[in-house]
Design a protein that fits this description.
Organism: uncultured Solirubrobacteraceae bacterium
Order of helices and strands: HHH
Number of strands: 0
Strand content: under 5%
Structural class: mainly alpha
Radius of gyration: 16 Å
InterPro entries: Tscrpt_reg_Rrf2, WH-like_DNA-bd_sf, WH_DNA-bd_sf
Shape: flat
Oligomer: single chain
Protein name: Rrf2 family transcriptional regulator
Helix content: 40-55%
Number of helices: 3
């Protein structure tokens, strides 16, 4: 759905939408047609992306934004 400011709003709860679903919706199957080590890399990427939800990403970003950065 269209969001208030022209973006998009989720029709499902963000905790039920995986990053893999979004990537594959926009770009097609991750690692599709790959062979050998590249097929293994694709499977690893699918595992990581499939294990992270949109809610997880938002939480990580919020934590990172609140973390103090000290440089010398």
């Amino acid at each position: 759905r269209r969001g208030v400011k022209g973006g998009y709003a989720f029709a499902r709860d963000p905790s039920s939408v995986t990053v893999l679903e979004i990537v594959e919706l926009l770009d097609g199957p991750v690692g599709g047609g790959a062979e050998g080590i590249f097929a293994e890399a694709g499977e690893a990427a699918r595992g990581v992306l499939g294990g992270a939800t949109v809610a997880d990403v938002v939480e990580r970003e919020n934590q990172a934004a609140g973390a103090a950065m000290y440089y010398i």
